[in-house]
Amino acid sequence: MSDKSDFKIVYSPKYEVDIGGHVFPTAKYRLIRERLLEKGGLALDDFIEPLPVTAEDLSLVHTNEYIDKIKNGTLTLQEELMLELPFSFGIRDSFLICVNGTIMASQVARRTGLGIHLGGGFHHAFPDHGEGFCIFNDVAVAAKKLILGGKKTLIIDCDLHQGNGTAAIFAGEKRVFTFSIHQLNNYPFIKPPSDMDINLEDGVSDVKYLKSLSDNLPRIFDTFRPDFVFYLAGSDPYQKDQLGGLRLTIDGFGRRDKLIFGLCATNKKPVCVVLAGGYALNLEDTIAIHYNTCMAGMKICLGR
Ligand SMILES: [Zn+2]
Fold first, then answer.
1. CA of 95 to the centre of ligand 1 (A)
2. In this predicted model, what pLDDT tens digit does every residue of 113-146 receive, in sequence order?
3. What's the structural domain count of the chain?
4. Is residue 54 part of a domain?
5. Whole-angstrom Cα distance, residue 124 to residue 83?
6. How far is the CA of 62 from the centre of ligand 1 (A)?
7. 235-257: per-residue pLDDT in tens?
8. Would you say the C-alpha torsion 221, 195, 96, 296 has a positive or negative sign?
9. Residue at 2 is within a domain
């Protein structure tokens, strides 16, 4: 670290794909960018657009057989049902771009201290299959590249749902520490163990959630000593989320951001934030939570 003037936010308009009347709001990426331009003081040239990921990078995590199935659109009906997304070449392309988006944001973070990807966090994807709206595991691919470059990597997964794909991919990998805080009684019902799983009962709100983070994360920084951090800033622990059963408030998310970015800044660790899930009844709330995360990261990690 760090030339902070090198900072760019990674985004592609191709993340907005028509998937019909689906709970997954693919418009959120565009709307957050618009909010950052209108209210966040950012300019058009503060954003960079990724190209699709290379086959070489993708195969660091995913099997060639699975990559071919996605590239050629030859998933079986059962595989498509497991994905819970209507497969199309548009959605395929958005995922290919998204994986490289997280790689690019991690590279920005290495140069400046902070990377923001307005996308990513598809933690339910496994090497040989996708599930739960996740085709490819962007954070796992970017983390693999980091550990191959000698960087110990901490993945802080704050999405409502447990990071089952990420946990399975990095099982036994000492150079990656996977931390997942999630609602216990929710998808995925089989949860391969992360290095640390915080299983929250239904209805947990700000105080207990934040205490679970502040009781554990500082210790992980001290003992694991990461060189790099990913933050999956899912907004689905929100009290008005359609898929979730936790009860965080918008203020609680602000404190979560402050805690995590604060730990990264204090420990001088570059952090790459990806958005992950968010299905608030009112899309406006999802946008507000993710927008606040971006602003908090820039304030705490870049001092702007
Ligand atoms: Zn989720």
1. 17
2. 999 999 999 999 999 999 999 999 999 999 999 9
3. 1
4. yes
5. 9
6. 21
7. 999 999 999 999 999 999 999 99
8. negative
9. no
